């Protein structure tokens, strides 16, 4: 046989075999008999019982960190970029923006990090903090955050985690409810604390992280508060000079009281034991292949969020390196990066990162806008390459040929991958459902799998996880080995476990990762946590899901997001928002439905570049962006685009907003309108735009 023909035939045959295997599918989750409320339950296909620890003899997070530091002594662990300068730049409309000139990453190895943890741990006790008192960490994600966390664990001190973007009322509530006596904070956070100092009942000392320009806040704090003020470095020195023996925790001890981001009302403090968090880490170890010392992790999400806290704990456990950055300095074109300075990802070149859907949506939109702006041959090549890779993933042998993949990677996708450093091998998306379009787009452009996970603060981020070789989109994977996932009937919403072709219902999560409950909130704890007759703890999520035949879960709704319209139709607000977000004019959107009306309306944060580009093409004149958002033609253009997105995603007519209000200012965690994970604070938004919503219904 002609060798050239054989060389051509082999990849085709292999591809067809792979395609057949994909169609047959793997059983990733299997039915299991469990206790508690009747329902349809699934477990991980490889583990009959929930796992609690992956590491022999390790039962707490403090033990796990010490083990890693002894094992990976001289490997780099914590990386921070050197700040060269801060500069203010003015925009054409007169506003000023801070820009950072950042240098290379500077590293603490595992041995150095462990020494810092031990010093800070001893320093806390020497400064007067008692073991039975709580420490709050109120700062942006950074190396000092992680050191403070691990230091507290070594003295069995419970850490209260608080989002740096939290508003005054929620901040007061969190600190007072947990009776925090010591707060570790950064410069911006110190200013927030000073502003509410008269409302704080128990805070005795504040440990500040040294930053350029913090002297003004320190002077104000010394003059207006009775706190003992110590720098992070001073606590380290104090502990170094007078070490204190560790007081290691038990698995049942509360490691963290983590305050949720408060999408509705005041935040609730979730009590996580060492056993709870360790169960999630142990489970993830079984589903992401080859985690280890060759990996570099990009840390930029809030450490006050369980997704980031668990991810960093896992990285330290396997000998990986953690490089710190921020969402505002992540890429070369991020808003706080000075022109000509590398973004965090370019400087770090990470292999692993976590992301929330809102950030991945921005990456997708950014790539598309750049491609559209270049147009011509570049746009045609990108579209051809993208469609060929899409065919490969969907099982077409033509696009799966390895040589062709390499060709498109070199021609098109190398530049896209460079945005995040060029070496990403796995991305974990969590915090909210990721749209199938974004998941596929990022997967193709980065050339790396996106593992979509599902979990909640109340389950230490553990519930389900997409396995490495699962190329499907729109699903959140099979149960993690630490969890059973059960669906129970929600008859009111029309979701039943007897539904065909897939069982549907409210998602209930059981396992050692299910937390103790809410701090000082027994009523709410008893409402959503249950213990069955076999002693297994369950959490009732309020999310609605369905199981696919291979045992993977898909999130399809949320009980709180469903509103019944005047004519009896049910509108799932989250589902509609996800569909309409595909419009290029949408930066953010909140759909609102009123039971006393037969239609819904929407608040749309307009994508400035897209709307201004349309205005230029149409010859629409305006003095500023706020005026453009009030322009009737602009509103109609956005409505038309939303209608197109609704049609493409097959929304029902009653689900399409009849009227919209365009918003010119973005919704940010700092404004209190979205959470730190960029989820809508629906009730806060409703109150802020109460008059606008009333006009839309008028």
Automatic annotation (TrEMBL):
Cellular component GO terms, alphabetical: endoplasmic reticulum; membrane
EC assignment: 6.2.1.12
Boundaries of every AMP-dependent synthetase/ligase domain copy: 99-519
Family matches, as Pfam families: AMP-binding
UniProt enzyme class: ligase
The organism's place on the tree of life at top rank: Eukaryota
PANTHER family: ACYL-COA SYNTHETASE LONG-CHAIN, ISOFORM J (PTHR43272:SF83), LONG-CHAIN-FATTY-ACID--COA LIGASE (PTHR43272)
Organism per entry: Brachypodium distachyon (Purple false brome)
Family label: Belongs to the ATP-dependent AMP-binding enzyme family.
Cofactor: Mg(2+)
Catalysed reactions, as listed in the record: (E)-4-coumarate + ATP + H(+) = (E)-4-coumaroyl-AMP + diphosphate; a long-chain fatty acid + ATP + CoA = a long-chain fatty acyl-CoA + AMP + diphosphate; (E)-4-coumarate + ATP + CoA = (E)-4-coumaroyl-CoA + AMP + diphosphate; (E)-4-coumaroyl-AMP + CoA = (E)-4-coumaroyl-CoA + AMP + H(+)
Name listed for the protein in its UniProt record: 4-coumarate--CoA ligase
GO BP annotation list: phenylpropanoid metabolic process
UniProt keyword terms in alphabetical order: ATP-binding, Ligase, Nucleotide-binding
GO-annotated molecular function: 4-coumarate-CoA ligase activity; ATP binding; long-chain fatty acid-CoA ligase activity; trans-cinnamate-CoA ligase activity
InterPro entries according to UniProt: AMP-bd_C_sf, AMP-binding_CS, AMP-dep_synth/lig_dom, ANL_N_sf
């Amino acid at each position: 046989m002609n060798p050239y023909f054989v060389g051509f035939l082999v990849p085709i045959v292999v591809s067809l075999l792979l395609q057949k295997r994909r169609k047959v599918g793997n059983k990733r989750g299997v039915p299991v008999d469990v206790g508690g409320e009747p329902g349809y339950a699934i477990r991980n296909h490889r583990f009959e019982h929930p796992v609690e620890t992956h590491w022999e003899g390790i039962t707490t997070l403090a033990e796990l960190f010490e083990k890693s530091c002894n094992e990976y002594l001289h490997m780099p662990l914590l990386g921070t970029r050197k700040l060269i300068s801060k500069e203010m730049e003015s925009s054409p409309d007169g506003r000023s923006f801070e820009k950072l000139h950042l240098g290379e990453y500077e590293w603490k190895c595992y041995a150095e990090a462990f020494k810092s943890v031990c010093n800070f741990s001893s320093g806390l006790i020497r400064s007067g903090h008692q073991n039975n008192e709580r420490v709050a960490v109120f700062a942006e994600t950074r190396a000092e955050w992680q050191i403070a966390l691990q230091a507290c664990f070594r003295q069995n001190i419970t850490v209260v985690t608080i989002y740096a973007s939290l508003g005054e009322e929620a901040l007061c509530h969190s600190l007072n409810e947990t009776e925090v006596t010591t707060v570790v904070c950064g410069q911006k956070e110190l200013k927030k604390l000073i502003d509410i100092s008269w409302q704080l009942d128990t805070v005795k000392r504040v440990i500040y992280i040294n930053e350029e320009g913090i002297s003004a806040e320190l002077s104000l704090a010394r003059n207006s508060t009775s706190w003992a003020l110590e720098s992070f470095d001073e606590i380290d020195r104090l502990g170094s000079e007078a070490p204190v023996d560790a007081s290691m925790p038990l698995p049942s001890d509360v490691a963290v009281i983590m305050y949720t981001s408060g999408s509705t009302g005041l935040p609730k403090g979730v009590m996580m034991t060492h056993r709870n968090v360790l169960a999630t880490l142990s489970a993830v170890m079984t589903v992401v292949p080859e985690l280890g010392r060759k990996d570099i992790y990009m840390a930029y999400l809030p450490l006050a969020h369980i997704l980031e806290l668990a991810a960093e704990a896992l990285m330290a456990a396997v000998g990986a390196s953690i490089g710190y950055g921020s969402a505002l300095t992540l890429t070369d074109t991020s808003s706080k990066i000075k022109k000509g300075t590398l973004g965090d990802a370019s400087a770090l070149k990470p292999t692993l990162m976590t992301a929330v859907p809102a950030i991945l949506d921005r990456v997708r939109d950014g790539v598309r806008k750049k491609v559209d702006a270049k147009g011509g041959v570049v746009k045609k090549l990108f579209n051809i390459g993208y469609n060929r890779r899409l065919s490969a993933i969907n099982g077409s042998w033509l696009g799966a040929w390895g040589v062709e993949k390499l060709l498109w990677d070199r021609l098109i996708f190398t530049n896209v991958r460079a945005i995040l450093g060029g070496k990403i091998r796995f991305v974990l998306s969590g915090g909210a459902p990721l749209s199938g379009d974004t998941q596929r787009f990022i997967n193709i452009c980065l050339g790396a799998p996106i593992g979509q996970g599902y979990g909640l603060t109340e389950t230490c981020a553990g519930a389900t996880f997409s396995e490495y070789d699962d190329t499907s989109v729109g699903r959140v994977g099979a149960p993690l080995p630490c969890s059973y996932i059960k669906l129970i009937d929600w008859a009111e919403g029309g979701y039943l476990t007897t539904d065909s072709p897939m069982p549907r219902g409210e998602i209930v999560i059981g396992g050692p990762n299910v937390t103790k409950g809410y701090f000082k909130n027994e009523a709410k704890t008893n409402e959503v946590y249950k213990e069955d007759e076999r002693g297994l703890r369950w959490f009732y999520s309020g999310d609605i899901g369905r199981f696919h035949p291979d045992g993977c879960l898909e999130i399809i709704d949320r009980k709180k997001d469903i509103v019944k319209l005047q004519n009896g139709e049910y509108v799932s607000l989250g589902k509609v928002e996800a569909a309409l977000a595909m419009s290029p004019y949408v930066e953010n959107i909140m759909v609102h439905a009123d039971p006393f009306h037969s239609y819904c309306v929407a608040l749309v944060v307009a994508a400035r570049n897209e709307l201004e580009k349309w205005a230029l093409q149409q010859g629409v004149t305006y003095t500023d962006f706020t005026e453009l958002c009030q322009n009737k033609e602009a509103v109609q253009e956005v409505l038309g685009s939303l209608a197109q997105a609704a049609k493409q995603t097959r929304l029902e007519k009653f689900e399409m907003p009849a009227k919209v209000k365009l918003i010119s200012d973005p919704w940010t965690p700092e404004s209190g309108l979205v959470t730190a994970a960029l989820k809508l604070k629906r009730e806060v938004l409703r109150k802020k735009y109460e008059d606008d919503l009333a006009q839309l219904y008028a």
